[in-house]
Amino acid sequence: MTQDFGFALWGEDEDHEDEQLWALCEAAENLFADRPAPTRRRYELLGCELEGTFANGLGFLAVTALDQHGEGHWDGWYLADVRVLGTRPCARDLSLVDVAIEAVRGHQTADHPHRRPLSVGLRLSDAEYEVLGHCRDLAEADPPEEPAPHAVRLLGCAVSGPLRDVLEGRRRQLAYRRLQALDTAGGRLAEVGHPDIVDWRPSTRGPGLYDLTVHMDPLPPVTVDIWELWQDGIPERPNLWARFDRLGRDHWLGPALDHRQWQRPDRPAGTTFHLDGRHVTDEAGFFCALGEAVNGPGGYFGRSLDGVADALCGRFGATLPFTLVWHDHEVARRSLGVQPLTWRPATFEELLAFLRNEGIEVVLA
Questions:
Q1: CB-CB contact of 323 with 273 (8 Å)
Q2: CB neighbour list of residue 34: distance below 8 Å, 6 or more residues apart
Q3: What angle do CA 291, 337, 299 make, to 5 degrees?
Q4: Is the pLDDT of residue 26 over 60?
Q5: pLDDT at 364 over 80
Q6: pTM of the entire structure?
Q7: Residue 282 in contact with residue 222, Cβ under 8 Å?
Q8: What is the pLDDT of residue 19?
Q9: For residues 113 and 63, is the Cβ–Cβ distance under 8 A?
Q10: Do 284 and 306 contact (CB within 8 A), yes or no?
Q11: pLDDT confidence of residue 169
Q12: Exposed/middle/buried for 135, CB within 10 Å: 0-12, 13-18, 19+?
């Protein structure tokens, strides 16, 4: 499927400091597609001393490497949708156990946790980073074949700078790069991803243009519908995000974040904001509604609780302390925190406690 949104390809200069515009592209082919099911892998947790309960539906497992002093150094290595397959006594130490699990490795993480010299093992934690135990090592059993990378064609690209040098044979390597979708005025619509350029050829769209083949993660097809609502600028009507499911609402927050610099300045302390809670049926919907409560249609005020905490520091439209009137809050009370996801979404009570702990006066209406 070819979509005629415009795209800008950015990369670093030779000093890896400033970004340069490498290409303007007229369209993308095969960018929007359902992602394949994540690859399930089998791991052995070796020499474990368990402090918590390893249930059959463990869900999420954070793995933190310990240095020679037993101190943890978290590098973002985790397993999702974990299922315990069984346990057995550890052959090297019968006081310990080996645990066989099946899981999905965290997105864009290394094959294994990074271990420092003289490391004494690994710490195991759950989604709330409560310690579940420790193990001496981790090994992947019968690694599956890696899926082929997803290929996208960027069509009708006017190239410049280091990218032109590579395409015309004057340079071999390229540094960091990112792809950005453009709105009808040529401004930023949304961040797309970090493509790896693997092939190119002259484009049939015009002289001097190239078609680039890149490897990158696809975007879900619902992104097309979202971008069409944003391609003429920030939407003027509220609750346009409400028509989408949880995945679509999460992707709605991407353009909302990218358009934040055009939102209103911080209102003074003591301001009252009104949150329309009629469509807050999931956590992503809460963040969409909160963004619009503070900054109007298409507004942004965080896409996670950490993001909201950052927004409360200023320059996102509001100044503490302020009042948030949460209308139709019963919708969220019934709906939030009940979906069987790997990372359990926050419940209504947890979101309410977070807002009040941050100094927001919440009025339930």
A1: yes
A2: 218, 220, 221
A3: 5
A4: yes
A5: yes
A6: 0.83
A7: no
A8: 84
A9: yes
A10: no
A11: 81
A12: buried
